Amino acid sequence: MKIYLAGPEVFFPDADELGARKKQICEKYGFTGLFPLDTQIAPAATASATGFLISHENEQLIRACDLVIANLTPFRGASADVGTVYEIGLARGMGKPIHGYTNDPELYHSRLNALFGSGTEQPQGQLCDSDGLKIEEFDLRDNLMIDGGIHASGGHFIAAQKKAAITETAAFEKILIRLSR
Q1: Which among 34, 105, 95 has a CA at the least distance from the CA of 70?
Q2: pLDDT in tens, 77-135
Q3: CA dihedral defined by 32, 27, 69, 43, rounded to 10 degrees?
Q4: Distance from CA of residue 76 to its chain's centroid?
Q5: Which phi and psi angles does 135 have, rounded to 5°?
Q6: E strand residue ranges, the chain
Q7: What is the CB neighbour count within 10 angstroms for residue 19?
Q8: Could you tell me the end-to-end alpha-carbon distance of the chain, in angstroms, rounded to an integer?
Q9: Which pTM does this prediction carry?
Q10: What is d(CA 110, CA 141) in angstroms, rounded to the nearest whole number?
Q11: pLDDT digits (tens, 9 = 90+) for 119-174
Q12: Are 158 and 100 in contact (CB under 8 A)?
């Protein structure tokens, strides 16, 4: 079974090493991991053309996989990496099972409130940010569409018990253990 390994690890200086480690963990449980950097892209004439090539190749890897496991630990904000979210949306549209994990045990509304909250509530008692916009309070790990898509695909969304580095793989491995049963 082939698993697309979505997540922000591709932005780290040791991305190849992180991908190799996750692929090794997949092999330990009898799976083949497909990491976004597995494709060989020759630089195109422009930076945007190179970006489009990378996008195309990553979509091809998602098409070739049986399921997706996404690192949805908050990245550059209160939510998951936007590219990773796109990838799980694409997989959901293809009818593939999606599993996710986060190394931040805080619920989404708590992270939003900590980063953007005004400390005030609207008359109905709902939290709002400093611009007076509602903060969704559904006791979910991330935006309701992310959690909802994982749930609807039959997947699991696992959270670490305590905050860990974005590259920590314990929650990732828990998903593989479940899948190998």
Answers
A1: 34
A2: 999 999 999 999 999 999 999 999 999 999 999 999 899 887 666 767 788 888 888 88
A3: -60
A4: 13
A5: -105, 120
A6: 2-6, 32-34, 67-71, 98-102, 117-121, 127-129, 157-159
A7: 21
A8: 13
A9: 0.95
A10: 10
A11: 666 767 788 888 888 888 999 999 999 999 999 999 999 999 999 999 999 999 99
A12: yes
In terms of Cβ atoms closer than 10 Å to its own Cβ (0-12, 13-18, 19+), residue 38 is middle
Residue 68 near residue 91, CB atoms below 8 Å? yes
Q: What is the identity of the amino acid at 72?
A: L
CA distance 88 to 38: 18
Question: Do residues 52 and 58 touch, judged by C-beta distance below 8 A?
Answer: no
Distances (CA, A) of 46 to 10, 49, 50: 20, 5, 6
Sequence-distant (6+) residues with CB within 8 A of 175 are: 69, 99, 101, 156, 158
